[in-house]
Amino acid sequence: MNRGALFVVSAPSGAGKTTLIRRAMERLTGLHFSVSHTTRPHRDGEREAEDYFFISIEAFQTMIREDRFLEWARVHDNFYGTSRAGVEERLQRGEDVILDIDVQGASQVKDRVPESVHVLVFPPSYGVLRNRLISRGSDQAETVERRLLNAKAELNRFPMYDYVIINEEIGAAVNDLVSILQARRLMVSRLEDQIQGILSTFP
Predict the structure, then answer these.
(1) Number of C-alpha atoms within 13 angstroms, CB side, residue 127?
(2) Whole-prediction pTM
């Protein structure tokens, strides 16, 4: 069985990466969303083990000491991390896994899993990103401004990514992400068993 592919999608807060991932997953089978651990509080509508595993700072620090994260980062005064065992188990079963993580975490994944595929989502402009963060209504004004300050630094990390999606219109952006995921699935290394099987039918 061929090993699954690991996809990493990053973006500044408000750029729309979570929506893109969810819509892409509605169109593709065999794609598993890796649920991150976090120390931040629940937001309205979020569900345990579906949006995040919500844990204490103490529990998170224990997982760091035991090297149980594929990646982890401190973002906006909260900790986020991806379970190494959870991802590896699915990859070994031939499942594709997609991570919704920030640029700090993406850099760690790139070091640990060099063959992973990295996608950075851009907003069409600063003004659009600001409006999206404000209209979301989930953050206080000072938090919005801090996220905007961090956005440029995050977007300037684009050279470490394989692909960039400019999320100006959600339908087109979803198509772009689906195309990237499908292209990876069509690589020779991924289809080698099927290729050899077909070739074996020829006299």
Answers:
(1) 0
(2) 0.89
